[in-house]
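Feature request, filed as a ticket because there's no other form

It would be nice if the structure record came with a short human-readable summary line next to the tokens. Right now we just get the raw output. Example of a typical job, pasted below so the devs can see what we mean:
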Amino acid sequence: MDRLIGIETEYGIVVDGLSAADWVNESMAVVRGYSGSAVQGWNYRGEDARRDMRGFTVKSLNTNPDDAVFDTASRHPMSHEEERSDRILANGARFYNDHGHPEYATPECRGLFDLVAHDRAGERIVLDSALRRAASTSRGVTIYKNNTDFHGSSYGTHEGYLMRRSVETSTLISTLLPFFASRCVYAGAGKAGVENASGTDADRYQLSQRADFVAVEASVDTLHNRPLVNTRDEPHATPSKYRRLHVICGDANMSEVATALKVGSTALVLQLLEDGWTSPVKLRDPVRTARNISRDLSFKLAYEQDGGTSIRAIDMQRAYLTAAEQRFAGCDDETDWVLQEWRTVLDVLETDFTKLADRLDWVAKYLLLDEFRQEEGLPWNDAHIQSLDLAYHNIDRNEGLYYGLEEAGAMRRLVTDSRVDAAVSCPPSDTRAYLRGLIIKRFGSAVKRTGWNGILFHHNGEDLLFDMNPLVEANVRVLNEEFATAQTLDEVVNIIRRNGQSN
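Raw output as currently delivered:
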């Protein structure tokens, strides 16, 4: 589990009396309504969404024609910087507008449960900003932590994992395809109906919201022709040593257990890859398999592999779990938690998935929606059922169905409310996010640009770049402790120069 990890969530937004043509402006207003300590100005140094880890750069990215409204709907021409409305927060996170969605990117975390706390803190930050916007306009603003509007559009929840560049790209892709195709059996958020289908084909409950929108095995694209394995090469660290695996095929989880299991299992699979392990599972058609797995609640269907054999989704996951257990059992408490939870969930799915309603989103939502559906005699793709589906993801604690379950004690928690409260304003203490947050909180007026891998600030008549590219290992904690004693910007600059981090 010893790697930098993070989650970026694009939230759905609905404003009373307004249409999709207004979402860019409303999303910008929500972001700008953030009231905590923050600075503006994002540094895009080292970022290029067109650069592919397979060794080339594409000329342009695919754009979904249905999403074009979000690129042109703002009422007045504006710069890219104005439209993004970036806020970099004192807890090390980034909050901005992305194609008409308020997006919250957690700070880099090293601990799995730290990440859960910061992901939940994002819900509170986005909701608080939305309520401020609602109060200023007298229009209700509803925020959803999900991945579809049920009208053909999907917005992402992306995971980021720092990993060694020494893993061959072809091996990385081939090993991750079966894992990501089947991970939704525990990581899916659940979905009423099937996108772009009709009749009985649309009348289904699915494990995953993103499965309908996966189109290819691997590519750099994120907005159209979305892949199972995203090959964008933006390491946000020393490029010769590291890559950042950018995962876009996952769902937005409300459940803390589902979030932790999704990220924890993936981190262990990456550790297997770094140790030289490759998956024995080779699917003939990973994209079609991912969609079919999402639509099979029996878990009995088997999917064709290269060579003619077939394998069930649960057995795909067991192949990765068994390898992780053999190598990593006993390494640390969080690893053991992931291994135990992973094993338990797969075993229970084979017998009675309803027993997992206290930890998996897709199960909890299924039981809520199916009871109402059967009482009313409605198909899964009925508008009333899909409205309840959305309500599960409403992040207003007084309105959201998930929060109702949590308040009733029906959902397992991994972090306390006080830990989430702390994450709203405090960065993790053991990653470079601590340094970013400290400088923003204490010396924000001097900051000109901020990025994941560096801070540009002005001091004594000159611009200084604090290069954070190398600060990705566990020993950054020592530097964090030194920075914590700095009371002036002069002291900060001296520490940076003493450690050779300035340009």
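Something like this underneath would help us a lot:
The mean pLDDT is 94.
The CA atoms of residues 16 and 139 lie 6 Å apart.
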